[in-house]
Amino acid sequence: MEPVLEIRNLNVEYGLGDKAVRAVRDVNLTLHRGEVLGLAGESGSGKSTLAYGLTRLLAPPGVITGGEVVYHPEKGDPYDVLGLSDKALRAFRWAETAIVFQGAMNSLNPVHKISTQLTDVLKAHDPKMSEHSRNARAREMLKLVGISPDRMDAYPHQLSGGMRQRVMIGMALILQPQVVIMDEPTTALDVVMQRQILGQLIELRERLGFSVIFITHDLSLLVEFSNRIAIMYGGRIVEEAPAATIYRDALHPYSRGLLSSFPALRGPRRELAGIPGSPPDLAGMPTGCSFHPRCPKAFEPCPTHIPVLGRPDSPDGAARSVACWLHPTEQPVG
Ligand SMILES: Nc1ncnc2c1ncn2[C@@H]1O[C@H](COP(=O)(O)OP(=O)(O)OP(=O)(O)O)[C@@H](O)[C@H]1O
User: ABC transporter domain: from which residue to which, for each copy (predicted)?
Assistant: First the structure.
């Protein structure tokens, strides 16, 4: 499969000097064209920091301290997003990569009509586009996300939470980006509405061909809507595999723990075992594998040596990677 975004050895820290904490550590991850890549992990594992880091939307004191984010445009040569000038970066965001933030539905401007907010995005990126074309595009976008274009002149407070969220998704898609990052896009909505909106997004992805990085606490949604899933712990990717493989046969004890914290989607009921202990403190990260103090399977190398993310020695090893001493690897990823 063709890559659209390649994250290589990405490191992000909050703060400077002695006080700095490393929130994203040596992350290597590839998003392929047209796929939905789910990011899972407990609160504080670095999912949002990774998403904002790769679009350079980190707020201070967040700083990218190393790595590359190679973007493959539809036409032309790949380039490193981290090396873009401010002007090029403004063009890149929205047009190439768009983000739907946590709680996005509350970020619509309450004093402007939906139509104005949608057409403003078009105006900012293509000042030459006629008003007629802008309005037509905004109506089309609303229709695509399941809102009647009659609602173009509504103000945000006149729409339900689900509709506001659809408007935000429409806004993210209006410039036809190749990559859409969804950070907890539907968390504030009820379960039925969440599934409906995500289902529709997946349908749109099939029609429009964009790729998605999908972040949510809800593992059942991730398994249902992602093609592949990457699991983060203490700022690192500890496992990455096709969603069905993670669900059926996760290799990392942390992934297994996460999966046992939510009810089985199908088949016999499983005990909700969860994971004992709490996520690591970034300021005082354990040595070796950062999961070892909580790991039921920890053994001799774990407290002292960091396992590298690599292809496991298994029949499906080429399609997955794991960072765990139970599955030592000769082929590091990245
Ligand atoms: N502005 C900040 N200043 C200092 N540390 C921060 C800041 N923002 C995040 N962090 C730290 O970085 C780590 C990663 O946070 P991040 O929000 O990326 O995790 P997450 O996995 O997305 O969590 P959640 O699911 O709760 O959003 C956390 O330990 C957090 O405390």
Answer: 7-259
> Domain residues of the chain, as ranges?
1-96+180-334, 101-176
* Residue 46 CA to ligand 1 centre (angstroms): 6
Mutational pocket test of ligand 1: of 16, 49, 55, 217, the residue with most ligand atoms within 8 Å of the beta carbon: 49
Write out the two tokens for 216.
């949510």
Global pTM value: 0.91
Residue 7's closest CA among 43, 63, 53? 53
Task: Write the residue with the smallest CA distance to atom 1 of ligand 1.
Answer: 61
| Residue pair 3/196 in contact by the 8 Å Cβ criterion | no
pLDDT value for 330 = 66
Query: Which spans in the chain are helix H?
Result: 47-54, 86-95, 114-125, 131-144, 161-173, 191-208, 219-225, 243-249, 253-259
Best CATH choice for the domain 1-96+180-334 from the list 3.30.70.640, 3.40.50.12280, 3.50.50.60, 3.40.50.300: 3.40.50.300
Ligand 1 closest atom vs CA 235: 14
- Residues in contact with ligand 1 (CB, 6 Å cut-off): 14, 23, 41, 43-49, 61-62, 282
